[in-house]
Amino acid sequence: MYLRLRRRRFGQLVIASAATTALANFGGKTVAQNFNYPLGIRTASNKNGQNIDLENTTPPVTLLSLDLTTGIETLDTEISSTAVDNKNEIIQIANKAVFTQSTQRITGLSALSDGTIIACTVGTDKKGNYNQILFINRKSKLGQTKKLSGFKKTNTTIEGLLATKDDQIIAIASLNEGSPPFHFLIIDPKNGKVSPADQLALPELPKDLRLGNLALNSDGKFYATTLGREGSTTLVQLDPQKKSVMTGRILITKLAELSYNKKPLVNDLLGLSVSPSGQLIALAKLDKNNKNSLLAVDPKTGQLTLLSKVMVDKIVFPRQ
Description:
Helix content is 6%, strand content 45%. It has one helix at residues 7-25, and strands spanning 39-43, 57-58, 61-66, 73-79, 82-83, 103-111, 117-125, 128-137, 142-147, 157-163, 169-176, 179-187, 194-196, 210-216, 222-227, 233-243, 250-257, 259-260, 263-264, 271-274, 280-284, 292-297, 303-310, 314-316.
């Protein structure tokens, strides 16, 4: 008896098989059988339909556990719109000369050592930009939020987030609403104030360079991506042990230009994270499909291998 597979189902099996092979063979490691699932985050619908105070409230969000090879999304945690607990803090905003509509977006996702997931959100209306940090306790299903303040320039936006091994929170800030110039900041989780990242000796970034997608490796090094005027996306590494003799700051080391299907990746990634087994996983928008792509990254060659499609905005592997 012959078993017929529909074309769509056959394609799913082929993709799953290729993804499993990529996971198993990546870097010469057998990791597929003990691979921890990453978490993805997306904004949820406003069930109550009320107007949200963008300055003092985060959007409702959903955390999902992602199966890398199938794209199956399993509900992990839902957090409704959460009011900041430092409402009286004064922030740095200015009215916008050009404005279309109010928005709220998730700009960063990371994980603390105690299992807490942290996310940055940016709200925008005609009065300015509002940055918040959301702490999600997956056990209690509760969120705690602070608005961020202390920016030297009005309408600065946080465009990336990373918790270090000792739980210091690094942010990548844009002085131009998502475009260069970028610089590093430190976020104080106790009060939401930002400060220069001089204490971590992080590099000063060229004015025309986009840097994003910070990801912490188990050895304490950081992965990131850069996108410059040449238009290609490059995987880089920041090693706290390698510093410039001239400036004393951490060096940015180029690893490889990212490519998919033997073509350079023109657009930047949406997210990057490292699994407990050392697998580097990226989230990217590869086509006009509503879903984004989960991809295995070879840090030596920059080659991206498609694993599955998901509907999330950022990804992170929980820390244990």
